[in-house]
Amino acid sequence: MDLEHKFCRFGEAVTVLEGTKIEGYASHFGAADQGNDIVGRGAYARSLKRLAEEGRAVKMLWQHDPALPIGVWDEVREDARGLYVRGRILDTVEKGREAAALIAAGAIDGLSIGYRTVKATKNDRGQRLLEELELWEVSLVTFPMLPSARVAAKRDTLAAPDLCQLADALEDMRRNLAGG
């Protein structure tokens, strides 16, 4: 059972809320990454459901090191756009304090997903289409694989959702009303 990793970027102007809170997208559906893989809509659904049923959570790690958890993901879900994550970097953990400082300084701006491929196919362009993934962790990393996926920290947790989140919510509602 091989664990794979995919990388994403933080947003352009990243700040750390209260030194710890971050949110955004760890994966975008339909976007080819630098490894020529494309994650399909619904690829994480079974894994997220199983984790919830078992009372387990996706881990937040530093640079994919299982010995260095640096926080918790309070929310991990799929929507019309991709895999949304919201969590807290723990300032009670040394690497968490370091990660928060590096993010605030703009030195670290990436996310990477750690997963096991359950089901994948190849298309006629030689790209691997990831249809089902077992998600294990989302790490803060130096070098992201999927530049189009971005995470942005919020200054105010009570602030209105950004326009991308609002557009995603409207798209989800439209699809639900259309029956698919």
Automatic annotation (TrEMBL):
Signal peptide limits: none
GO MF, one annotated term: peptidase activity
Segments forming domain Prohead serine protease: 19-158
Keywords of the record: Hydrolase, Protease, Viral release from host cell
Tagged with keyword Hydrolase: yes
GO terms under biological process: proteolysis
Pfam families, per the entry: Peptidase_S78 (PF04586)
Protein name per UniProt: HK97 family phage prohead protease
Organism: Ponticoccus litoralis
